[in-house]
Amino acid sequence: MRLDVESLRVLRSVAHSGSFTEAGDELGLTQSAVSHKIRRLEERIGASVLLRDGAEVVTTADGRELLEYAEVMIRAHDDAVDRLRRRPEVTGVVRLGVNEEVAATELAEIVSHFRRTHPGVELSIRVNASAVVSQWLDDQHVDLALIQVMDVDDRLRPDDVVRRRDRLHVVQGAEVDLGELDPVPLISFGPDCLYEPFLTEALDRAGRRHRRMLECPSIHGVCAAVRAGVGVAVLNTPHVDEAMRPWGEPIDLPEVAFVLRSTPALTSSPAVALRDHLLAHRERLAA
Predict the structure, then answer these.
(1) Residue, of 84 and 232, whose pLDDT is higher
(2) Which letter does DSSP use for residue 192 in this model?
């Protein structure tokens, strides 16, 4: 069993405020990120730590016992961070490019931690589709990139650090059946979408006509459209929920890798500090 400090910090905040939303506001996390950390914590200890009592969230007996240890662990962690921060500060500017999914799920936590540990660094962030962010990196408009790469051919570069891999799913709304529609209505992330070409190629091989019904660059917008029954989309596993179901016959799609990519000559102190921070964040995610 491994307990990470940030999950314990989330537990403490929810227990004190009685609200996932207020805890998220306090910690700079989305409500879904708060819920995810609590679920992972409960999976690790094999017991529930929080229960909903109407509109209020209450702590279980196991949760109260864990909170006693959490207070000590969080305090020791923060004391260590404060001690290390007294070392000579890294200063300067670092430019980070991220794809929209990272911006929607992890960015608040990444920025919050980095600001706390590197107050002298000015962080500049740009968000766009992975293909666009990758080109920014090649053109040296950003120093580091958190992007998705389809794990096929040689699209992964030798220096890419893979943070995780996800399966892809072709889905529709749970309340609709779009399997026989001709042409197949597609929901797309836009012309720079990594997933869509693999779906359209599979449809072409099967002799299925298709058309782009909706184009939206936002993961939240695409998911909402799928739930509403607007059309068919390709989503990675974390975004497939109970309001969706598989579409048609199974289609074999490659995995998508979430990677940290940097310029070949990463030498500036702020950029190196951010890279090391992101690598540490990767280890926390895997814990």
Answers:
(1) 232
(2) T
Residues 6+ apart with CB under 8 A from 200: 186, 210
* Percentage of the chain lying above the pLDDT 70 cut: 95
pLDDT at 282: 67
**Residue 2 burial class via C-beta count within 10 angstroms: exposed 0-12, middle 13-18, buried 19 and up:** exposed
Among the listed residues 147, 209, 159, the one whose alpha carbon sits nearest the alpha carbon of residue 184: 209
Task: Say what the pTM is.
Answer: 0.69
Is residue 253 within 8 Å of residue 200, measured between CB atoms?
no
Cα–Cα distance, 121 to 135 (Å, whole number) = 24
Rg (CA), the chain: 21
Cα 214 to Cα 14: distance, rounded to the nearest angstrom: 38
The SS3 assignment for 177 reads coil
3-state SS class at 162: strand
Distance from C-alpha of 183 to C-alpha of 248, rounded to nearest angstrom: 13
Return the structure tokens found at 59.
Answer: 């702590």
At residue 110 the predicted structure's pLDDT band, cuts being 50, 70 and 90, is confident
Residue pLDDT, tens place only, 208-222: 999 999 999 888 999
Angle, in degrees to the nearest 10, between helices 20-27 and 5-17: 130
pLDDT of residue 283: 61
Residue ranges of domains in the chain, CATH in brackets: 5-85 (1.10.10.10), 92-163+258-286 (3.40.190.10), 168-254 (3.40.190.10)
Question: What is the C-alpha separation between 36 and 224, in angstroms, rounded?
Answer: 20
pLDDT of residue 287: 46
pLDDT the model gives residue 280: 80
